[in-house]
Amino acid sequence: MIDDQRGPATRAIHGRPAPAGRGQPLVQPIVSATTFAFETADELGRTMAGELPGHTYSRLANPTVEEVGRVCAELEGAQDGQAFSSGMAAIATTLLSLLRPGDRLLAATQLYGNTYSLIERHLRPFGIDVAYVDATDLLAWEKPARVLYAETIANPGFPVADLGALAQRKGEGLLVVDNTFASPVLCRPLEHGADLVCHSATKYLNGHHDVTAGVVCGSRELVGRVRDTLTDLGGVLDPFPAYLLRRGLKTLGLRVARHCENALVLATFLDQHPAVERVHYAGLPGFPQHELARRQLDGFGGMMAVEIAGGREGGERFMNGLGLAARATSLGGVETVVHHPASTSHRHYPPERLAEIGISPGLVRVSVGCEDAADIVADFARALARL
Ligand SMILES: Cc1ncc(COP(=O)(O)O)c(C=O)c1O
Hints:
CATH superfamily of the largest domain: Type I PLP-dependent aspartate aminotransferase-like (Major domain)
Low-confidence stretches: none
Helix content: 25-40%
Strand content: 5-15%
Order of helices and strands: HHHEHEHEEHEHEEHHHEHEHEEHEH
CATH topology of the largest domain: Aspartate Aminotransferase, domain 2
Mean pLDDT: 94
Radius of gyration: 21 Å
Number of helices: 14
Distance between the termini: 52 Å
CATH class of the largest domain: Alpha Beta
Bound molecules: pyridoxal-5'-phosphate
């Protein structure tokens, strides 16, 4: 862990101290070159072998992309960080680098949909012994496993995983945490004993709905192993989105503070509204894991789910009545975005299965943006009044 008392906003803006030198660019330039030229064949060979510092080929390492890894490592309190072409590339590459046939993967029941299908459609057929347990049911995590996998805050009801308790129970295994919904501003899983942290950087880290990227942070040794697998699998980030992501990261501290502020205002308003049956937001005192969230997070985040009276039709009508909030599927950007799982991402699920995973027909997921809180509340109030 880096011995550094700087706050997350400072870390996001400044990253790791740059090497001293006069007239250095203040921001990392876009190095679009795929290949790098050397004076001699020997120099190229030794640089490729890692005996000399430098870049040789951008699938192996690129200066613009490396900067993103360094800043994210700084934010997560990690020795090293690596950027990827998407969150799924980061997660898949990480799990493939840690697991071998016959190993057990113990994963939380509440997982991002494509992480679940990665495990079921790709890891299980390769001989990984997969088991699921509820992230909030700690006793069930007793089984030994090569990898324990959980999300700091998961979809759709936003259960919070007790990372410290999971780390105590990991035994010889490695704890891998998807920290996408919290962001390192609110939670740094390595501080709680996790071994690797993954992100869909598409979400809060970039924050502007215009970059698809992923990140993994952890010890030099583990990130090195993941990076070796990345070299073979090839899910590398391109320099231009890496530049945009680096730029987005500069305002991470500001944005996350605003997301949290706005979300608490909106959740409090919705919680008292007669057309709303239930609000799932870790910042509300009635949230089942409110105390754990207080202990583990430096804020309650910008994600919530709202159950609207009138079931699926009520949920859809409510969404269609919104004017400021966009009906879209992603999250973590400056724009407020709403998503209705029952009619979109989970539309093929029968009602019983939806209920099992905590998605009621009228549930609407809200990624609260950075607009003025009063405008967000007014938009939601208008849509509810029309029901
Ligand atoms: C929690 C979580 N993890 C991983 C991913 C995958 O990230 P990406 O879409 O960048 O591949 C997502 C995407 O929504 C997510 O919400």
